[in-house]
């Protein structure tokens, strides 16, 4: 089968949430807000944190569903030195307890990587998608103290049994799907109770939360001061700002660092710079913000191959990847096939096109700008999503595996 039409198992791991529902809610929220859409965030960008200068490189690793495929990244193939933290996903919740399904052995193998790097932290992530099943499990688990206590007990048992260093909560998102304001309060209670029990265990367990990037989600789904007090850090999901949807059928960037010159109002806020600094205005310390960088791109099918600029009309997902998600190795092969790459200097990210195919992605140049920006603004570090869709098989002819993740580490940590 032609590689460009192949559905890659690792890319399928990313397709675990209802993206159209998410964008519809964002647009609805924007239309009904009584606010100044041209609000400016006035922040002292040089404000110093009280944290160590040691920066985090937090890497998500998704357990593939089918271990027989050659496209699946096995734990033993992960370089033990390119991340400070590896977060394994995604476990679920069953009967108010952690449920790893049949993947427990995979968690054990990732933990074994610590034999080659004792400083590496390995955590378990629970959630990982904006689907009704996961949302209902979270909602049921947090709704009373008894259920939360049972969940916390299971977390303590799992982390001890598997020698894990902590927990990452990836609920996408409290209150957002259900409209129940009480979920936000119960989620805050869960975080506070987890912190209390983690401290009581004397095991120095880490607590992180994967959080949304759009202002609408931040405002509706989190009690930020509570979160700031009790988490060790947040993993800002600063990607998926744009992808193909039928009611907004134009090309745009997956994870722009800054808005482009054509974006006004709320659209001008859909970028990494705005999201990270908006979390600060909501009282999240910058030394607890780990900024997400995607290792994958989003593809579009152009309506007219002669019109291939930013905001060009599109008719659907591109042919490459799966449902618009494209791994970095596939993007490299697309470029090798004769695709033209354009670096948009305002947003500091590239896109590439050939015939009807158009892809927004990150490369070494955009990684440089983003990681340098993280350093200049003194955030805690970068989060990589995910190791599975970086070029771990060296298909990009970079003479190294995981080239994008390595680029992040080299700049942030000088290694």
Automatic annotation (TrEMBL):
PROSITE patterns: GH18_1 (PS01095), GH18_2 (PS51910)
Signal peptide, first to last residue: none
InterPro entries: Chitinase_II/V-like_cat (IPR011583), Chitinase_insertion_sf (IPR029070), GH (IPR017853), Glyco_hydro18_cat (IPR001223), Glyco_hydro_18_chit_AS (IPR001579), Glycosyl_Hydrlase_18 (IPR050314)
Keywords from the named record: Glycosidase, Hydrolase
Tagged with keyword Transport: no
Domain named GH18: residues: 55-415
Keyword Repressor: no
Family to which this protein belongs: Belongs to the glycosyl hydrolase 18 family.
Protein name according to UniProt: Chitinase-3-like protein 2
Gene that encodes it: LOC107068471
């Amino acid at each position: 089968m032609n590689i460009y039409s192949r559905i890659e198992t690792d890319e399928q791991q990313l397709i675990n949430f209802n993206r159209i529902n998410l964008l519809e809610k964002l647009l609805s929220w924007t239309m009904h807000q009584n606010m100044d859409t041209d609000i400016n965030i006035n922040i002292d960008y040089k404000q110093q944190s009280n944290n160590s200068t040691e920066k985090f490189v937090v890497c998500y690793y998704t357990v593939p569903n089918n271990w027989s495929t050659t496209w699946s990244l096995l734990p033993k193939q992960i370089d033990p030195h390119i991340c400070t933290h590896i977060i394994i996903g995604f476990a679920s919740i069953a009967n108010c307890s952690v449920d790893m399904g049949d993947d427990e052995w995979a968690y054990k193998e990732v933990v074994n990587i610590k034999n080659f790097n004792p400083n590496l932290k390995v955590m378990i992530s629970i959630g990982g998608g904006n689907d009704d099943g996961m949302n209902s499990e979270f909602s049921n688990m947090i709704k009373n103290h008894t259920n939360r206590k049972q969940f916390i007990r299971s977390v303590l048992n799992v982390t001890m049994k598997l020698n894990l260093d902590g927990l990452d909560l990836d609920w996408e998102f409290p209150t957002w799907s259900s409209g129940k304001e009480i979920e936000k309060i119960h989620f805050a209670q869960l975080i506070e109770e987890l912190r209390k029990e983690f401290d009581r265990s004397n095991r120095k367990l880490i607590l992180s939360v994967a959080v949304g990037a759009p202002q609408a989600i931040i405002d509706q789904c989190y009690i930020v001061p509570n979160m700031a007090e009790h988490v060790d850090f947040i993993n800002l999901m600063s990607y998926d700002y744009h992808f193909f949807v039928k009611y907004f059928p134009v090309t745009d960037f997956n994870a722009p660092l800054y808005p482009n010159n054509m974006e006004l109002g709320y659209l001008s806020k859909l970028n990494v710079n705005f999201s990270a600094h908006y979390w600060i205005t909501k009282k999240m310390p910058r030394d607890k913000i780990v900024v997400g960088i995607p290792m994958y791109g989003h593809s579009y099918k152009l309506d007219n191959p002669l019109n291939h600029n930013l905001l060009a009309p599109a008719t659907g997902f591109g042919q490459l990847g799966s449902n618009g998600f494209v791994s970095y190795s596939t993007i490299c092969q697309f470029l090798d096939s004769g695709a033209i790459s354009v670096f948009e200097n305002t947003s500091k990210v590239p896109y590439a096109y050939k015939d009807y195919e158009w892809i927004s992605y990150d490369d070494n140049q955009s990684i440089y700008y983003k990681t340098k920006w993280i350093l200049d603004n003194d955030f805690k570090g970068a989060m990589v999503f995910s190791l599975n869709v970086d070029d771990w098989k060296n298909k990009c002819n970079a003479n190294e595996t995981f080239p994008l993740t390595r680029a992040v580490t080299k700049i942030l940590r000088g290694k």
